[in-house]
Amino acid sequence: MIRLKNIQATYTTVRGKVTAVDNVNLEIPEGIILGIAGESGCGKSTLLKVIYGNIDSPLALEKGQIEYGFTDEHGTIVTSANIREHWFKGISYIPQSSMSSLNPVTRIRQQFVDYLPARADKAAVLEAVRDYIQKLDLPVEALDAYPHQLSGGMRQRIMVAMGTYFNPNIILADEPTTALDVVVQKGILLLLMDIQEEMKNTIFFVSHDMGVHFQITHKMLIMYAAKVVEFGDSKVIFSEPLHPYTKMLIESLPTIGDKHHRAGVSGRPPSLWENLVGCRFAPRCPLATELCRTTEPAFREFHPGHFVACHHAEKANQLDEVAIRA
Amino acid sequence: MTTILKTTNLNKVYKLGGLLNRVRINALDEVNLTIERDEPVIISVVGESGSGKTTLAKVILRLVHPTSGSAIVYDKLIVGKGDKPSNVEFFNMVQPIFQNPFEAFSSHRAVDSYLADTAVNVAQLQKTEVVAAMAEALRLVGLDYQDVRGKYPNQFSGGELQRVSIARALIPRPEIIIADEPVSMIDASLRMNIINLFLSLKEEFKRSFLYITHDLATAYYISDYIAVMYRGSIVEFGDARKILADPQHPYTQLLLASIPDTRTKWERKKIALSDIEAKEFGFTGCRFCNRCPIAEEMCKVERPPAIKKEDGRDVYCHFA
Questions:
Q1: What value of ipTM does the predicted structure carry?
Q2: Domain B2-316, classified CATH 1.10.240.10, yes or no
């Protein structure tokens, strides 16, 4: 179990502090792909940074702690205090832009070797890397290339290979396919799914594309304006979402073969600088009542394993009538 | 019948590298599209990065000069040899919308100054008419002039700012608007508002759109015609619904099968990806041949011609 306890992360700016992730409490089982969805600015990338332990000014972990569910060599549970010592081996990160993550002036194979302590036997390591690349069905010649010689999709697959090479317990992927074409995206997602099935890592997968989440995730986490609004099994989230925002996110995009009218969600997310009261989605929500505008809904377990922060979760089935026509 | 868009043998070659290792990239390779209709239409050009779709948009916007070939928009020759309209006339007919509205507007200038400049320089309105024209254009995109006046780009959300850039494009009342990936930078919940705006502008304001995108789902939703491009060539062109309901070129089929939709899960089988793109531009035959499941020997040598199907579409494949 990976436990996120009261996580609150802030950015310090000249205007003061802004809370980008607000009071997140979650227990995430291991060995699954967890999808994190939400709009830009909702805090999904910040949450990932906090989990990775990549907390540098202006970002700060104001409150809370994470327990990662694996132990260090002394048998104590790794927490957010010492996660940095476990980078690569215990937790790894696949970024969005492979071009700015790979060193442009050294060959790919050198960048694999760079991971290791200086005393390691380079030839043996390279041999192991070659085997691993072959196992993933990637062309071995790619190792001898410079990053700019490879296509964007190939580079990103190299990043996936690097991120998974040490078989870490946790893999964080921040929009790893957003900049890519659909065919390439499918290739990379299939690769990631194969790796996860074999190695049983826990993957945190951030994307704004609900279609991608449907294809690969086991559980889903929906964020809105720094808050977690829904968490549960992907199957249930896609068939019976409880939060109106989730529902709108799923239904707003068109699908091929279905030409009936689709409306976007009107309005925009609130500015996190304002003093926010009540439910943050209320101004855009078709079910909102006076209660929503004044009292913040608690994040509660509505069905076993299905959490939601909404006062009107029991009315979720009425959303069909109200929401899409709103 | 109006010729809304017609390109004839449009070619654009980019040369990369130095004298010794020069690579020629055919960003556009014999692109032939003809759309003749009386009503306004939405034409989608879809393809992956490096397919030449943005180059096509730039050629039609006269931002890039083609190596050879010509283009006609609304019965007027705009690119190629012959009598062409001046830039002012041209931009009264054709207007662009770009991908990232935050890059399209300078962060140091109020956004309404762009609208005013367009009204004066392109639409050639008198100073007294400018405000009315701006207010009218903003009303068409669902904004109020009072809310926009004097504001800077950082005071808008991406969706609102993209609306402003659409309003700017509407001021000269162009016949056709070239929209290059207009929604790819906009959040999912706001994206459909822009897409629906295109539809209503087509219906009510009677303007045509050339919608350049990599997103087949939105292309299906709004377009009348669709052109699928791969490495500089058109692979399939015709009625949007017919093509997306029943794709005939193997590349269109692959593209459709790769969309992550929220209904059915993918089959878990390997797909062929390209490793080095520049290589494919150099193929003498069909550029898709090394990834194509039905390719045969002749595909490697002979470029497939346009084959007209009975439903009116063009398919550039020997075996479709």
A1: 0.78
A2: no
